[in-house]
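TA notes, week 10

Several of you asked for a full example with nothing omitted. So below is the full record: structure tokens for the whole chain, then the designed sequence directly under it. When grading your own attempts, check the secondary structure regions first.
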């Protein structure tokens, strides 16, 4: 008697083969990444309003303090070391001016839940590893609750404020007004639904 092979077996084998070869694909080439501004959100986790505020504030920091802050999000590190990856992105992007190397890069790997602050040699005396660790730890609650936009905005503020305090200069004041959401769904009961409710109430009476 000839046994028929279920049709699902070849499909399952094909799916396993795809997973095997996908696992063996090389990691994303960091050198192929291109800066998207002060914020390079490759993981697509930052909302539009937070992105606008981050770009504006980092512009103020560079204009008033001559310090360039770059914020980068990636979906995953693909088993790479975050320290070396942050250093590679820092050099590839050329963060900070060539004179003085006054640059700071904050890298966030979303799925890996890892973060790292990389600084140029001109910033090492103003933003030490200990200070960087304190700043990143202060963002953990927001990152765990997926509030990535506010977390990265806070990161930019805290980095700039710490550098300003260490240098003995005032930190820039963010003068960009916070826009209120135009979504009115949470403001109360919609008017048409209220009318229907009143009609139903009178019908019951």
């Amino acid at each position: 008697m000839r046994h028929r092979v279920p049709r699902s077996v070849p499909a399952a084998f094909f799916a396993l083969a795809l997973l095997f070869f996908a696992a063996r694909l090389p990691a994303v080439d960091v050198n192929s990444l291109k800066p998207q501004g002060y914020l390079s959100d490759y993981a697509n986790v930052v909302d539009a309003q937070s992105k606008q505020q981050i770009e504006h504030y980092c512009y103020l920091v560079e204009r008033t303090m001559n310090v360039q802050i770059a914020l980068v999000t990636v979906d995953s590190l693909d088993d790479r070391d975050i320290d070396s990856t942050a250093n590679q992105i820092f050099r590839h992007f050329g963060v900070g001016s060539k004179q003085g190397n006054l640059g700071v890069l904050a890298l966030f790997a979303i799925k890996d839940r890892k973060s790292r602050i990389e600084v140029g040699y001109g910033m090492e005396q103003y933003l030490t590893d200990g200070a960087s660790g304190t700043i990143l730890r202060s963002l953990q609650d927001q990152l765990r609750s997926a509030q990535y936009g506010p977390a990265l905005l806070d990161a930019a503020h805290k980095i700039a404020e710490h550098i300003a305090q260490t240098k003995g200069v005032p930190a820039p004041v963010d003068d960009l007004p916070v826009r209120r959401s135009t979504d009115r769904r949470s403001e109360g009961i919609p008017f048409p639904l209220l009318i229907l409710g009143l009609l139903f109430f009178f019908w019951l009476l």
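Residues 11-26, 179-188 have pLDDT under 50 and may be disordered. Use that as a sanity check on your answer.
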